[in-house]
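Researcher: Please translate sequence to C-alpha cells.
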Amino acid sequence: MGRFEVGNQGRGKWGCSYKRTTMFICSINVVVAFYVVYCLCSSLYIYSNRFTQQSIKYSPDQIQKMQESIRIRKSAEPTQLIKAVEEIKKEFAGHDRQVNLPRHVKQMITHEILQRLRRLPANANVSAQRETVENLRKEKLQEAKLLISGQTVNTIISSDEAGMLAEAMESKWPVLLEEIGFWIPVEISHKEHYDKPEGADEFEDEEPLPGWPVPAECHAELHTDYDGAAVRWGLTHHKESAADCCQACFDQAKRAKPGEKKCNIWVYCPSESGCFSPDIYEHKFQECWLKYAETPRLNFKNKYSDSYRNSHPTAPLIVPWVSGIEGFSAGVEVSKSLPT
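Model: Translation complete:
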C-alpha cells in the first residue's frame, strides 16, 4: 500500500494512508451534513410553532364576533325545510319500490296495454293514450276486487294473485309501469297569448328602420310591397337606407325626360338576410326598386296568407319589404287587391 510522509524535505514522523485520509474526510462531511439538517429542522419547527401560537391567539372582540357570526348562520338555516327533506328521504328509503307480481301477470298486463294502444288511431295524441291506459287499470282493478270477493271472473289470474294485483293497481301503478318498461311522454301544449289591446296594430311596436329617418313625404309603409312598372331595377340599384331610396325616387322623377315614366313608388329591402319575392331572382339587402303606376296596387301587405305560403314554401310569414307612394294624398286611388 502506498504511503506518503509530511515533514521537512518531504519526510516526517507521521505517515497516513489514503484509506485513513478518505475515512477522515467522509466522517467530517457526514457530521457537517447532520448538523445542517438539524439546523434546518430546528428553524422550521421554531417558525411553525411561532406561527401556530400567533394564529390561535384572538382578542376577546374577535372571539365575540366569530360567535355572533356562527349564531347568525345557524339562525338563518332553514331547519324546518331540512327536517322535512330528511323525513321525505326516510320515507322513500323505507318505501318498497318493487311490485310483487308474478312474471306472467306482468307480461299479461304489458300485452293488453300494447293491444289497447294499437287499436287507437294513428294520429291519437298523448291524452288519448293516457286515457286508454287508465281505463285498462280501472278494469283490472275491478277484476281483482271481484276475485277477492269470491266472484267468478273470466281471467287467468288466480285468487291468490288478485290481492297483489289490486295493490299494484291502486298504490303502485306508476312503479309497475316503470318495471314493465312502459312510458308515455308528457303532453306539451303550446298556446300563443295575444296580449295586445283590442284594435291595436300588430306591427306598431316594431323597431324603426335603420339609417336616416324616412321623411313624411315618402309615406313609408312597413311590411308592404307595391306593384308597378320598374323605372330602375333594384338588383343593381342599392341604397344605404329607405330614406335614400325614397330620395332616389324623387331625383328620378325630377330628371325624367318628357315621355319617360316618372317614379312615384319606391320599394326597399331592409332585411340583412334578403327579401322574398315570387320571381327567379335573389333579392338582397338594400335593394331599391323605383316604380311607376297610374293607380298603385298592393302586391303584399303585413303577412303572406296561408294559401300563398302553401303554394310558395319559401315565403316567410311577414312581408319583409318597405314601400312608399310619393305624392300620396286622399285623392289618389290605391288598389287593395292582394294575391291569395
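Researcher: Any highlights?
Model: The two ends are 122 Å apart (CA to CA).
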